[in-house]
Design goal:
Elements: H1 11-32, E1 34-35, H2 43-52, H3 67-74, E2 86-90, E3 112-114, E4 119-123, H4 128-152, H5 162-172, H6 179-193, H7 197-207, H8 215-232, E5 238-241, H9 243-248, H10 253-268, E6 276-280, H11 285-295, H12 305-313, H13 318-330, E7 333-336, E8 347-351, E9 373-377, H14 384-392, E10 405-416, E11 424-432, E12 438-440, E13 457-464, H15 473-481, E14 488-490, H16 493-506, E15 515-524, H17 543-557
Parallel strand pairs: 2-4, 2-5, 6-9, 6-10, 10-15, 11-13, 13-14
Antiparallel strand pairs: 1-5, 3-4, 7-8, 8-9, 10-14, 11-12, 11-15
Helix pairs in contact: 1-2, 1-15, 3-7, 4-8, 5-6, 6-7, 10-14, 11-12, 11-13, 11-17, 14-16
Length: about 550
């Protein structure tokens, strides 16, 4: 008789199953229309997140409260959401025309509206990835809130610890805390959070702002308060999805409006029949790479180009940036800030026929007889990349004319699995996490192009993940160390490639031989402790790789040898 071995799953397999479970559960809850995150309906989501233990959420599975993860999430959620028992995810349903003031999180472009003391509406206009992102973040902060509750609630009747009473006194007084009052409150908060006094003190100011310097205490207090009410009064927090959002999701409504606006602008400026190059990047690197060194050369005499780019990237450099932008507009740049589509993706259009190349960083540019047009679009978010590029590459509706798109270039941030922050990754394929979908392509960029630039470059497949907040070391190690040989992770690559392939190979709406370029610079290394996204931003580390990648893309478009 054949003997069967006891087969156990690896941590990577458990993590993969947890991500799949979260993905399926979130879609189920969305179709259902509402759920209670800390009730029975949210249990599967909580269990999957605790099983996964993503790197970005640090100590989520331990008793002590996770501070860096909490900061990362709070910066991506609207101010005041910690006070709200009812969170309503909506489509763009006209709140911008009301008296409600839009609240935009500092690190995530989404409009949110505080309806009353108990309700926050969050506009979802960037597709499913936006929903996965916010639900994961909310699940995390609600789990953390119950950790706070467990440390302050002494019995089922609602009696609370002395530390909580003292924290409440500090929070409820309206004036700014003095240094002594702040340190007393931090002492009580550290006991509640299971962290040391110095740990809390070190992160305290990162939560604050000019208007609310003591916001850290405010966040901790309201998370704990609502968790206590859930336990003692059974008043559960509820997340709802508006009927309009459920009806619209997946139908490219926002992407279609966005793309039509771009095509209409091309038509108005007689640019529709010209060769087009699409670049997904930020709103400064292409413009600055072409014009900044010429415009600012007298101000920064004898300084390198990258020094100028760093100066332009600093937070107080608005005057310098405006100077470059005004000059760019005299050289054929058209600015299209997104005001109506809901995509939150701004656009710049460059008519190279109007550029005086002697006044640029590319004096030897050779753009041929049919001067190309460059469309620069700001970063998309997850699945939104498919919606926007798919719509942009469709024929122009008015006259059904096809766009002569010669290339699509994607430059963005990504997590790296070998190397560190600021390194460059050149993908050869995109693999969709959680499925067997994979997209191989001929990348016009290569590692050899960057070998003398003083920055480590890695080349190989990259994985497109459901969300950066769902990653854990075991799964990433599997992708990196197995025959997949993955060098990094990002959120949009396979969605871009899916849209490009269908437009060029199947629907024939753009040329079959369209060129593609993908390059990313590393924002974090989730395999290194202390180097995850929650550990802080890149600062000026990202400036050189950003501009190096941009310049290599432009050199190919401008035929600079």
């Amino acid at each position: 008789m054949k003997e069967f071995k006891n087969i156990s799953r690896t941590r990577a397999q458990e993590s993969s199953a947890a991500i799949e479970k979260m993905y399926i559960t979130m879609r189920h809850l969305f179709n259902r229309g509402f759920y209670k995150p800390m009730g029975v309906s949210g249990e599967t989501l909580r269990e999957a997140l605790l099983s996964l233990r993503p790197e970005i959420y640090g100590n989520i599975a331990e008793e002590k409260v996770e501070l860096n993860g909490l900061l990362y999430v709070i910066e991506r959620l609207p101010t005041g959401i910690e006070e709200c028992r009812f969170i309503n995810l909506t489509s763009d349903e006209g709140y911008s025309k009301s008296h409600f003031k839009a609240i935009v999180p500092p690190k995530r472009k989404r409009n949110c509206y505080r309806i009353d003391e108990e309700q926050m509406n969050v506009e979802i206009t960037r597709g499913r990835s936006d929903i996965y992102d916010i639900l994961t973040h909310l699940t995390f902060i609600f789990i953390e809130s119950h950790k706070i509750k467990d440390r302050i609630l002494l019995d089922d009747g609602g009696e609370v610890s002395r530390d909580w009473q003292k924290l409440e006194q500090a929070v409820l007084q309206k004036k700014k805390l003095s240094q002594i009052e702040k340190e007393k409150a931090v002492s009580h908060a550290s006991n509640i959070l299971g962290r040391t006094f110095i740990e809390v003190l070190n992160i305290y100011d990162s939560f604050g702002s000019e208007l609310s310097p003591d916001r850290f205490l405010h966040v901790i207090y309201w998370l704990g308060k609502l968790a206590i009410e859930e336990m003692v009064e059974d008043t559960k927090r509820i997340i709802t999805f508006s009927p309009i959002l459920r009806e619209r999701l997946g139908h490219h409504i926002h992407g279609e409006i966005w793309a039509n606006n771009i095509k209409q602008t091309l038509k108005t400026n007689n640019l529709l029949d010209r060769p087009i190059h699409v670049i997904s990047a930020n709103m400064h690197s292409v413009m600055n790479s072409i014009f900044a060194t010429t415009v600012l050369k007298t101000k920064f005499k004898d300084q390198s180009d990258f020094f100028i780019y760093e100066e332009l990237s600093k937070s107080g450099a608005n005057e310098l940036r405006n100077k470059v932008e005004e000059f760019a507009k005299t050289q054929g740049m058209i600015s299209l800030p997104d005001a109506a589509s809901g995509t939150n993706i701004d656009v710049q259009i460059f008519d190279t026929a109007k550029i005086d190349w002697k006044k640029t960083a590319f004096p030897t540019a050779n753009t041929g007889d049919k001067k190309p047009v460059i469309i620069v679009m700001d970063y998309a978010f997850g699945e939104q990349a498919y919606e926007t590029i798919d719509e942009l590459l469709k024929p122009f509706k008015e006259n059904k004319s096809l766009l002569n798109v010669e290339s699509v270039s994607i430059m963005g941030k990504a997590g790296i699995l070998e190397g560190g922050k600021g390194d460059i990754m050149i993908p050869s394929a995109h693999i969709n996490e959680g499925t067997a979908d994979n997209y191989f392509f001929e990348n016009e960029l290569s590692a050899a192009m960057f070998e003398n630039d003083g920055i480590p470059v890695f080349e190989g497949p990259m994985v497109t993940v459901l969300g950066t907040s769902l990653q854990n070391k075991d799964l990433l190690k599997f992708f990196h160390e197995s025959t997949w040989g993955v060098i990094g992770l990002e959120m949009e690559g396979s969605y871009y490639q899916k849209a490009i392939q269908s437009a060029s190979k199947i629907r024939k709406s753009i040329p079959n031989d369209v060129k593609v370029r993908y390059a990313y610079y590393a924002s974090d290394n989730p395999l290194e402790t202390g180097s995850t996204l929650a550990s802080g931003g890149l600062g000026t580390t990202g400036v050189k790789p950003t501009y190096l990648i941009t310049i290599k893309i432009l050199e190919q478009i401008f035929n600079v040898k």
